[in-house]
Amino acid sequence: MLSMGLSAQADTLTRQNGAPVGDNQNSQTAGPWGPVLLQDSHLIEKLAAFDRERIPERVVHARGVGIHGYYENYEDLSEDTVAAPFQGEGKKTEVFVRFSSVVHGHLSPETLRDPRGFAVKFYTEQGNWDLVGNNFPVFFIRDAIKFPDMVHAFKPSPVTNKQDAKRVFDFFSHVPESTHTLTMLFSDYGTPASYLNMDGSGVHAFKFVDDEGNVKYVKFTWKANQPIKNFTAEEAMKQQGMDFQPHTTDVYTRIGEKGETASWDLYLQELEPEQLDDFDFNPLDTTKIWPEKLVASRKIGRMVLNRVPDNFFEETEQAAFAPSNLIPGIEPSEDRMLQGRLFSYADTQRYRIGVNAYRIPINAPRNAQINNHEQHGKLRTTNSTRDVNYQPSRRVALDDDNQYKYAQTPLSGTTQQAPFYKQRNFAQAGEKFRSFSKVEQQHLIENLGTTLAGVPEEEIRVIISAYMYNADKHYGMGVAKLASAPMSKVKATAKQLMDVQAEREKRAKKVADDFSRISYKAEL
Q: Rounded distance, CA 53 to CA 33, Å?
C-alpha cells in the first residue's frame, strides 16, 4: 500500500467480541482459485451487521421501478446446462425486472450519479432464478469483505448526514482496482436518461452445469434494443428541477399508459475451466470484463417487458432478489464478490421482509411448489397439516434428489487470506476511456476532475489522478489539471502504483505456485 501522510496512530480493528482482526482486506479462500470459506467469521459478521443497517429500506438499491415481462430463448443450450430457461428454442419464461439506483435513498432524485441495478427474476418450473446485476459490466471492488466499507464511503457521513466526495475518494485512494468502474461512474453512463435505454450485465461469472455434472464458466449481458440514452451532468441537474423521478415517469408513461414494450437481447460468453489461467487478468475478478476479442459472445435470447405492477409496494417494493436464488444447471463461480453476495443479499431480505419472504406472491415460484419443513416466523401465508416436520422419515416420503447435487469443484492448497494476483487494475479502464467519443471523454474528465477538486487533501487528489494516468495518460492529465494535482507528483505516484501492483502480483503468484506444488506432492 502507498504510504499515506494522512495516517494517524491506528487502533487495532476488532470483531464484535473484541477479538483483533488479522486481515480486513481479503476473505479466507480455499487456495488462490477456490471459493470463500464459511469459517471466515469476520466476513460473515461484517456482512451480517451491514445487512441490518436500515429499517425497512434496502441498504442499497432502495429506489426502484419494477416491470413484468417474459424471456424468450433463441438457442437450445441443453448440452451446456440443465437450467430450465435455456431448454429448447422458442421457450418462454415469465420474468419480473427491478431497475434501481444503488447508493441513494428511496425518495432521492433519480438523476443522481450512480450505478443502476438491473435485477431479473425468472419464474421457471425449477423454481426462481435471480440474475442480479447492474448497468455497468464491472464493479468497484473484487472482494465482498470490502463491500460495507465501500457503501459506507458513498453514503452520508454518520456525523453530518452529508454525502461527501472527501469520504468517497479517501476510500478509493486505497483501492486502485476501482479505476475501471469509477471511469464508468463519472462518464455519462453514470447518469442514464431512462431505465429502458440502458444495457445490463450479470457482472459476475457463473457456472453452467450439464446433466453429467460438467461445468463451463459463463457471463450474461443484456443489450438494449432501444437506443442508449444518457444525460450529461448539466442535463441531469436541469432534469431535477422539472421532474426528480424521470425514470419512474418514463416507465409508467411508455409501458403503463401508452402500452409500449421494451426489449433486451441476452448475450452469453463461455469459458472452459482450464482456460481460467490463460489471460493476463483473473476472469473471476468483478473489476474486469471478458473482452470480446478474447471471449466471443453470442445472442441466445430476448427479454420483453410489457406490464407495470398493479401495486408498487406489493410487487416492486416487496420483491426480494438474491444471487443465491439459483436453479439446477446454474451455480456460482468462485468470484469473491459473488461468494459474499450469496449470503448478504438473501440475509438482507430475511431481515428486511422476514424469513418467509418467498411466500409473498411476487417472490413465490410459479410452477414449483415450496415443499420443505421450514415453519412459523414472520409473514407465514401457508398452512401445513403434516405432522412430520423433519427429514428423513419413514412415515412421509419427502426426499432430496441426487440428480440436483452441486457440481464438484477440485481444490488444492491451504486456506488463505491473500489478494488476487493478475490484478491489472488500470488496463481495461484505459480501453474503456479510449472507446468513448471525444465529447464523452471530455465529459468524463470534467465530471471526475471537478468532483475530485473538492477534496482538500492533495495526496488523495494525486493518487486518484494517478489511477487515471495509468489507465490513459490523456485521461489522467485532464483529471489532474482540473483537480489541481501536480503532474510531477501524479507521474511519480503512477509509477509507484505500477511497481506496487507488479510486486503484489509477483508475491501472489509465488503463493499460488507454492500451493500447486503442495497439491502435487500430496497427490504423489
A: 32
Which cell numbers in the block locate residue 423? Answer: 490484478
Q: Which of 73, 128, 134, 282 is catalytic?
A: 134
Task: Look at 51-55, 264-268, 278-282, 305-309 and tell me which has the smallest mean pLDDT.
Answer: 51-55
Q: How far apart are CA 85 and CA 46, in angstroms?
A: 35
Q: If we measure between CA atoms, which residue out of 484, 429, 492, 513 comes closest to residue 187?
A: 429
The predicted structure's pLDDT at residue 368:
64
* Torsion from C-alpha of 305, 313, 60, 436, nearest 10 degrees: 30
Helix H or strand E encompassing 499: helix 487-523
Catalytic residue among 26, 42, 61, 356, which? 61
Q: Enter the C-alpha cell of residue 261.
A: 414494450
DSSP state of 153: H
What's the pTM value of the predicted model, to 2 decimals? 0.90
User: What length does the chain have?
Assistant: 524
In terms of C-beta density within 10 A (0-12 exposed, 13-18 middle, 19 or more buried), how is residue 307 classed?
middle
Q: Give catalytic status of residue 282 as yes or no.
A: no
406 φ/ψ angles, rounded to the nearest 5 degrees: -65, 150
Using CA atoms, how far apart are residues 325 and 185, in angstroms rounded to an integer?
28
- Provide the terminal-to-terminal Cα distance of the chain, rounded to the nearest Å: 39
- Cα angle at 129 between 62 and 409, to 5 degrees? 115
- The Cα 445–Cα 222 span in angstroms is 27
Residue with cell 473484541: 18
- 124 pairs with which residues across the strands? 127
Q: How many CB atoms lie within 10 A of CB 290?
A: 21
On the CB side of 436, CA atoms within 13 Å amount to 22
Contact present, 270 and 231 (Cβ < 8 Å): no
Q: Cβ contacts of residue 59 below 8 Å, gap of 6+?
A: 50, 51, 53, 151, 348
Contact 225, 261 (CB under 8 A): no
- Dig out the grid coordinates for 153 from the structure: 464511503
Rounded to an integer, what distance in angstroms lies between the CA atom of residue 296 and that of residue 279?
14
Please provide the DSSP assignment of 424-489 as one string: --SHHHHHHHHHS-HHHHHHHHHHHHHHHTT---HHHHHHHHHHHHHH-HHHHHHHHHHTT--HHH
When pLDDT is cut at 50, 70 and 90, the band that residue 503 belongs to is: confident
In 3-state terms the chain splits into helix, strand, coil percentages (rounded to 5) of 35, 15, 50
Q: Are strands 415-416 and 29-30 parallel, antiparallel or unpaired?
A: antiparallel
Q: Residue 378's pLDDT is what?
A: 75
**Three cell numbers written together for 312:** 408498487
DSSP letter for 147, please: H
Query: Distance between CA 414 and CA 403 in Å, rounded?
Result: 30
Active site residue 363: no
